[in-house]
Amino acid sequence: FFLFFLLGCFKLQNYSKLLIPIAMRRYIDIGANLTDAVFKGVYRGKKVHDDDFHQVLKRAFEIGMDKIIVTAGCQEDITDALNLVKDNERLYCTVGVHPTRCNEFETNGDPENHLNVLKHFINENKEKVVAVGELGLDYDRTQFCSIETQKKYFQMQLELAAEAKLPLFLHSRNCADDFIDIISKKRDLLKGGVVHSFTGTIEEAEKYIELGFYIGINGCSLKTEENLKAMASIPTERLMIETDAPWCGIKNTHAGSKFVKSKWDIKKKERWIEGSTVKDRCEPCHIVQVLEVMAEYRKEDPDVLCQKIFENTNRLFFPDQ
């Protein structure tokens, strides 16, 4: 009986000769940049190894990934994302313009028309578009887009989200005061959302939660002891989990890395073989490691925490499922 009980609670996954017991959990990766060329084996414009996108998805689904939301941050991304998700029932996407890409509103001299293009993407793909984003402010990278331009089109996209009645997939970097000021003025019109890839302070998290937003945690949220403390301060009912793949993997230098238990066969991109992951390329399957760090530092049961996060995510993005 005990053996059957264990088999019911766990499945053994063979990751390139690494045998790992993974609890039968359900995950939703709220932010993965799966349109990035690295998932086709292309790095900085150079083909380095075979396209392994389907292997990336296979690894994700093997660990219990229920859905993945593919992040789009510009018009080209949106087109690619919609093509990527259209034939896979587990893949969905966002529609929006990243703060560092907001110059594209003015490239053709007609910002209103650019906004209408975003509306068209949403209206023609209602079964697949689950959020407006990635939108927000990023004051760490103003060399790509000025603060005033970012603020202008952040507000314009909030109006788009209100009209579309979609939740927000939000980006906030070193801009908390302006971010909160802008979004507070529109809050009553908005359906809610998540501040993804959170790297802010405990106080910033509290302000976002007071506004009714969820907080998304990935490897970049777990770099320092201060990051870990901020993550631990967030109520479970306000947490979501993500990878931001291919970015934001948990590195050995990160404070949270000591809590990581799951491992995969890793190769440098130049030595990639079929079935291996790629060094320094985060994948959706690595969401397991994010959960491991969160649960261990928060002193919570990982299965219970995972299930609660799964419910949080469905409540916001998939309320009818």
Structure described in brief:
This protein is α/β, with parallel strands linked by helices and 321 residues long. Helix content is 38%, strand content 20%. Helix 6 (147-164) links the parallel strand 8 and strand 9 (168-173).
Which secondary structure elements does this structure contain, and how are they paired or packed?
Blueprint: H1 2-9, E1 10-15, E2 18-23, E3 27-32, E4 42-43, E5 46-47, H2 53-62, E6 65-70, H3 75-85, E7 91-95, H4 104-107, H5 111-124, E8 129-138, H6 147-164, E9 168-173, H7 176-186, E10 193-195, H8 202-210, E11 214-217, H9 225-233, E12 239-241, E13 266-267, E14 277-278, H10 287-298, H11 302-317
Parallel strand pairs: 3-6, 6-7, 7-8, 8-9, 9-10, 10-11, 11-12, 13-14
Antiparallel strand pairs: 1-2, 4-5
Helix pairs in contact: 5-6, 6-7
